[in-house]
Write a sequence for this structure.
């Protein structure tokens, strides 16, 4: 059965480097870090005192204050990103069939800020003081719900929750709905807001976070031998994916074609990746096959690249399994070296980066790369951006629970 071709026509995000796509892209190419000491809460009792915060964010630019108060920050970031993505797509929903426009937005944790606040109220002030909006703000599908209501969209509407693979799952399912003809347009991606006291304490308890408090901007160092954990971040990324014929009919600008998607499960450990890297490799291999490409046609990989000892070595191992000798010709980088790890939002933010790279033939550096690790022996674009002619690229997201997801894009 023939499949519809799918393209990306709109992109929007909120990141620790800002919320304007082109401004953030220039900062990434310049190797600027958005990681800093945390301002959002008192870190005096915490071992980790830094992270990636979205600064100077004002949701009331998009919704009334009363409505904003009924949304957890992760949903606010998602809504703001969706407004930017729709504007970028130049789409007028009044001239579309709204029943064929979907919204799929992933989150690894959902409304953690609201959970912390209402838990505090419950134990300090009693059950009667718990907010009536606790559940509507907490639930992971709140972001998708608010976006659908903002634009009056009646197509498939739901959330995906698979830790750090959440937004890749959302975008991959969106791709399938468009390929199969179930939708004409899907707004998809992910959002996360866990840089609060609970989030930092919990991930630190797992020994997952870097503790370089004296050097926040140098803390995230993917693939470097001295890496000591990831940097917790917040953010959102939303893309407008569209049936190519639908996009051409309305005269849309096309950023890139979305060609392939695959997902696998390690079935190994709830937090650690499988050392054999077989299923991570299968995700990449199957996504390239799904795109109708040969491995040698991939020129660039935006890696999951978390800056943890296990992930970076195992992802490298998986890349070598899939690409063989071609792995030495690939350029591989990690956006998390500058933006930190925004969990369920990371895949969407990084797919936008991948699309920008394919569009421009530029790749941003992996910053803080100083000491080579024998287990990480690929070209990670250390510390300086690079011009790279490419036609196809892929983006990996790997999540707690053993979730492996890969999306392949190509030039429009």
């Amino acid at each position: 059965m023939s499949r519809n071709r799918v393209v990306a026509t709109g992109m929007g995000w909120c990141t620790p480097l800002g919320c304007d796509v082109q401004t953030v892209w220039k900062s990434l190419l310049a190797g600027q870090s958005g990681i800093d000491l945390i301002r959002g809460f008192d870190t005096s009792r915490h071992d980790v005192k830094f992270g990636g915060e979205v600064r100077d964010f004002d949701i009331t630019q998009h919704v009334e204050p009363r409505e904003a108060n009924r949304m957890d920050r992760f949903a606010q970031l998602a809504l703001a990103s969706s407004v930017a993505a729709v504007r970028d797509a130049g789409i007028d929903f009044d001239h579309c069939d709204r029943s064929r426009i979907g919204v799929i937005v992933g989150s690894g944790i959902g409304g953690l800020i609201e959970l912390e606040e209402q838990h505090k109220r419950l134990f300090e002030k009693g059950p009667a003081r718990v907010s009536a909006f606790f559940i509507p703000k907490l639930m992971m599908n709140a972001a998708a719900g608010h976006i659908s209501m903002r634009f009056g969209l009646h197509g498939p509407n739901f959330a995906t929750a698979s830790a750090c693979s959440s937004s890749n799952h959302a975008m991959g399912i969106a791709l399938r709905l468009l390929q199969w003809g179930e939708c004409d347009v899907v707004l998809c991606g992910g959002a996360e807001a866990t840089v609060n006291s609970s989030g930092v304490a919990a991930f630190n308890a797992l020994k997952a976070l870097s503790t370089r408090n004296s050097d926040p901007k140098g803390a995230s160092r993917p693939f470097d031998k001295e890496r000591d954990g990831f940097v917790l971040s917040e953010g959102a990324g939303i893309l407008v994916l569209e049936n190519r014929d639908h996009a051409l009919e309305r005269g849309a600008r096309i950023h890139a074609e979305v060609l392939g998607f695959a997902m696998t499960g390690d079935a190994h450990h709830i937090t650690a990746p499988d050392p054999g890297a077989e299923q991570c490799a299968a995700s990449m291999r199957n996504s390239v096959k799904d795109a109708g490409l040969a491995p040698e046609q991939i020129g660039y990989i935006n890696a999951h690249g978390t800056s943890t000892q296990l992930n970076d070595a195992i992802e490298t191992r998986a890349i070598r399994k899939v690409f063989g000798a071609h792995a030495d010709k690939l350029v591989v980088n990690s956006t998390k070296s500058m933006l930190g790890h925004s969990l369920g939002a990371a895949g969407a933010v990084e797919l936008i980066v991948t699309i920008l790279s394919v569009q421009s033939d530029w790749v941003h550096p992996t910053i803080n790369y100083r000491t080579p690790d024998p287990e990480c022996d690929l070209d990670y674009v250390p510390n300086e951006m690079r011009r790279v002619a490419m036609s196809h690229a892929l983006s990996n997201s790997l999540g707690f629970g053993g979730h492996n997801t890969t999306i392949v894009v190509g030039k429009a």
The radius of gyration is 20 Å. The chain has two domains: 6-249, 261-411. The chain is about 35% helix and 20% strand.
